[in-house]
DNA sequence: ACCTGAACACCGTTCAAGT
DNA sequence: ACCTGAACACCGTTCAAGT
């Protein structure tokens, strides 16, 4: 028995040689478990059936691995966007796909909120947004600035929602109940607006907020394009 | 000499008794050092001249301390907003003040991007934003949803910029140079839009992006108020 | 009543040793 | 050429012991 290695966890990985792709896929499996499984190099080693430090043979450090993992998830986002949409619906589809994927892999969505992967799938996302703002009628500096507005805003929005999923249940519960607890108990004299809207504030959903945020981005592009046409 | 305690680091804190306020102020001093000094309980003990674990006598855990520290920084934001502004300029002043304070205490700005302090200064910020959207003409559910759009968006925007300041210099340098490196080298056939805007994209500044993001929020409120007036 | 300090259960990463 | 595993320099938090 000790002489046949075929039944150990490690040898089950058929070939037992680590590859960048295998490490990225193991990372995605861990990331998909959300807050119940931290994305650490030690857990990654477990998932791969290898020593935790083995990944350093294939990635300079954890940050470089994260960028590769993130670029892979951008592939999922791109795959979710149908062909033949006009510029507004392309931005809407990108937003919806980004949110879905960020909530599927919260640790990735959260960590990338102020980053760039600098990798192929990100190039395609940039190309897509630039195509949309140019189809809307923007050029040169206007196109560049409005691309950044859309790209950075989408990253910030989905990153914000993704980060929330990583908090422990008790922290999330305390934050969520604040509208019906702390904000219900404020002094009506000092905070008349909060008091007046105390019934409506807890009712607002993340989906509503995300929707009007995305529409605000589209409106901003439209308004700028109209201003340019009129002058 | 050993009998007089007046020259030790600890006794310099006049009374040598820790208070929540002293801990919050020490936290702000560390946070203001940005990426060159991590905000850890051990460093906090150093800053206070006390044992690292002494803070657990005054705060349940590091998260509760963070919420108190964050609420204190919201006080700085509120102090920066002049009286007598109309609703648009109040939102602009809140945005500018939030960004300034978040960049002054990056670890706080970053950590609060998807949180609520549930504390007095935050109540005042919420009251301010609600007052602005109601002055613009929104009521009930519309006011609640647009308040959340403004509040959550400002947190996301300033948190995104603050988080960036916490990365190591080499990570920041690699991200910043991507427009003039990786994005300059893309295939012009496959990425015509990126190629066409390769000169403009690196020129866009964080200030420009922040400005149009805030104006987009104001426009969204204005547009909704006009729609309601017209029906 | 409050503070100390050892201890616990974690992190990412390096490097000499193995195969 | 690649993987292992001990080791290092960190984390936040608990708890028995001190004063």
TrEMBL record, chains A, B:
InterPro entries: Homeodomain-like_sf (IPR009057), HTH-type_TetR-like_transc_reg (IPR050109), HTH_TetR (IPR001647), Repressor_TetR_C (IPR004111), Tet_transcr_reg_TetR-rel_C_sf (IPR036271)
Keywords per UniProt: DNA-binding, Transcription, Transcription regulation
Domain HTH tetR-type: 17-77
One BP annotation, GO: negative regulation of DNA-templated transcription
GO molecular function, one term: DNA-binding transcription factor activity
Protein name listed in UniProt: TetR family transcriptional regulator
SUPFAM superfamilies tied to this protein: Homeodomain-like (SSF46689), Tetracyclin repressor-like, C-terminal domain (SSF48498)
Tagged with keyword Transcription regulation: yes
Keyword Cytoplasm set for record: no
């Amino acid at each position: 028995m000790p002489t046949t290695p075929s039944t150990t966890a490690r040898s089950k990985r058929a070939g037992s040689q680590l590859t960048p792709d295998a490490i990225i896929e193991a990372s995605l499996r861990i990331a998909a478990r959300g807050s119940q499984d931290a994305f650490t190099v030690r857990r990654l080693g477990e998932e791969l059936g290898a020593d935790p430090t083995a990944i350093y043979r294939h990635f300079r450090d954890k940050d470089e691995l994260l960028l590769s993992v993130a670029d892979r998830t951008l592939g999922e986002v791109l795959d979710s966007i149908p062909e033949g949409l006009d510029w507004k619906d392309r931005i809407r589809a990108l937003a919806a796909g980004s949110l879905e994927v960020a909530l599927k892999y919260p640790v990735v969505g959260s960590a990338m909120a102020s980053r760039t992967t600098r990798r192929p799938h990100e190039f395609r996302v940039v190309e897509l947004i630039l195509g949309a703002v140019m189809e809307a009628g923007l050029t040169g500096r206007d196109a560049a600035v409005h691309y950044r507005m859309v790209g950075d805003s989408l990253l910030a929005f989905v990153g914000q929602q993704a980060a929330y999923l990583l908090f422990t249940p008790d922290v999330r519960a305390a934050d969520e109940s604040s509208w019906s607890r702390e904000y219900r108990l404020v002094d009506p004299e000092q905070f008349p607006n909060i008091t007046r809207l105390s019934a409506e504030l807890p009712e607002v959903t993340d989906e509503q907020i995300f929707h009007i945020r995305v529409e605000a981005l589209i409106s901003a592009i439209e308004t700028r394009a109209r201003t340019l046409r009129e002058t």
